[in-house]
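Entry 12.
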Amino acid sequence: MSQAQSSRESIPLPTTAIAVDQVAEAASGAAHWFKERTPDERSELLEAIAGALDAVQVDAVRIAEEETHLGVERLRGELARTTFQLRFFGQVLTAGWVAPLVIDHADSQWPVAPRPDLRRVLVPIGPVVVFAGGNFPFAFSVAGGDVASALAAGCPVIVKAHPGHLRLSRLVADTVAAALQRRGAPSGTFQLVVGDEAGRAILSHPCVRAAAFTGSVRVGRMLFDLANRRPVPIPFYGELGSLNPVFITERAASERLDAILDGFLQSFTLGNGQFCTKPGLLVAPEACSAADLLAERLASNGPQRMLSDAIASAHAARCGELVASDGVRVVKQGQVTEDGVTSTIVEASMAVMRSEFANLTAESFGPAAVVAVCSSHNEMLELAGLLDGQLTGAVFGDEDDPAAADLVKVLVERVGRIVWNGWPTGVAVSWAMHHGGPYPATTSPLTSSVGASALARFLRPVVFQGFPDRMLPDAARDENLAESAIVRDGAWQPARLAADHR
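Predicted 3D structure (tokens):
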């Protein structure tokens, strides 16, 4: 390894208070430049970042494997997802899909009172802090979805590095910053800070206008409260915790239980249970013995490494809480060894679920699952109705099965994504995806951290009333409307088609 490479891959030191101030001021200084970039220009910046990450793939994957214990193939796939979502947000920008203009022309006959000329545009909210996630060292970290969507919105980004992969964070941050600067972006457009104190300080800085977070309920809630205690509170988009329940109707259990259990086993152990969409609760009819059948399938599964020793210790403690719950039946108690951890399964009746609800429905970050056995469909509905907000919920049933339809109606009130006869692990980066849900799944149930709508979190509406055309923002001027997606006097008009109406 060369001296330059050794320096680039060394563990970065915590960011000092003075440096945090400089970072925030630099981001604020870059905000005006970034705000003036057109959607096409921002798309080109995202493409430049994706290309730069492709170029450092070998080193990035090697360092990620050393720091996270995740396999090479998993990491290559995750890096490919990361560069894809950067390019995807570029497509979102050029399509004009997320940030349409809304124009109401002056109308002297408007009901109640004459209407002035109104033009609603979305502008970048300003510098954004992103707290990197630990379980996806590429896709939810330094160049992950929160970062990509904030950059797409035209906001400078300050990333607080996750302590679980600091060397990788430095490499990726240097790569992203260099790609932006080669395209003429100011140095404050993208920056990295290290350390918990620096994270709290940058979140509190008056130059910062919004924040995004992926992590635990405990840490996320602490940061959310900090963001709201500021003299000027800011939006805090936190993805915190989710149990992602799976419900099996009696009919589905009688027809295809083996296939469903095979799928559940693969889903709740995928990534060693370290996915935010891991299904941690299986709700099944009492008669089908789902817990015992799962334990039989797990008999041949060996230990797997977790992301860090600290996470393995936390997982062991959480499993200790599960198996110690009053009334549960411990079907399989996992072990923590030098080689990794094995899976834990506990079974609980509906009566036990009621009495131990808070403990049994708390997220278990790792390969652990609760099997709730219900003696009737009404018990399943009751359990679904007791659940807190979730990222996902899954139902296994048939389309003419009233029991399945009843469950879906209850879950609509509690989850951000309902999966029909399938598994929640695997979140598509696409136009329709919503990755969010009511608290504690997220702090903002109206928004998504994955998919095209994710960049809307970092755009703020401003209405220009009665302005002459030459004083409007470029995109809102009559001469430029052919390049924009518009809602014109209440009628939708896609981008680049408005010329027909000029």
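Annotation: Residues 259 and 356 are 30 Å apart (CA to CA). The chain has two domains: 3-104+121-240+448-457, 246-420.
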